[in-house]
Amino acid sequence: MLPLLLASSSVYRRELLSRLQLPFTCSSPDIDESHRPGETAIALVKRLAEAKARALADTHPAHLIIGSDQVAVLGSQIIGKPHTFDKARQQLLDASGASVTFLTGLALLNSQTGRYQVDCIPFTVNMRTLDSTRIERYLHAEQPFDCAGSFKAEGLGVSLFQSTEGSDATSLVGLPLIRLVDMLLAEGVEIP
């Protein structure tokens, strides 16, 4: 098996990948993550996932490189990481009683053969109706300012959900393991 490389510095993605019990290393690619004019959210996450994997191909020439990128979509608007309390508060107020779809782009590049696989895995969160007091309590408790959508699904953020829809709950956290296993199997990786 070629060595696995996760093209990410995300602690959330590292934790998810470790569930597969395969040895891997991590390296953070330096790419432009700007949204291009007219680019759909699906095209954006697929392009960025592939770009992250390809950015490390020259320095890791005989690896299976995993790239992933995620955006949250509310209505027709892409919402990103809030970074501040006020932006997180506004994101959650806007999402109150609505559905937020998380689109996770996933790419697996065999840097030895040049073969790559890329996909987009959607996951929808239907939010409870939230008032300002509840939102502020949550934000103070968990401080999810580095999370698209302003909540941590793997933590207390689940208390904000009414329901969820999707084929792979790990995609909500940023690395869709079910689809990744399919890609790794296609490269001859034995799991488990």
Structural write-up:
- This protein has 192 residues and is α/β, with parallel strands linked by helices.
- It has a single domain, classed as Maf protein (Alpha-Beta Complex), CATH 3.90.950.
- Helix content is 31%, strand content 26%.
- The chain contains six helices and seven strands; from the N terminus they run βαβαββαββαβαα.
- Strands 1, 2, 3, 4, 5, 6 and 7 form a seven-stranded mixed beta sheet that branches.
- Strand 3 and strand 4 form a beta hairpin.
- The longest helix has 15 residues.
- The protein is elongated.
- The two termini are 13 Å apart.
- The model has no long low-confidence stretch (mean pLDDT 96).
Could you give a short description of this structure?
This protein has 192 residues and is α/β, with parallel strands linked by helices.
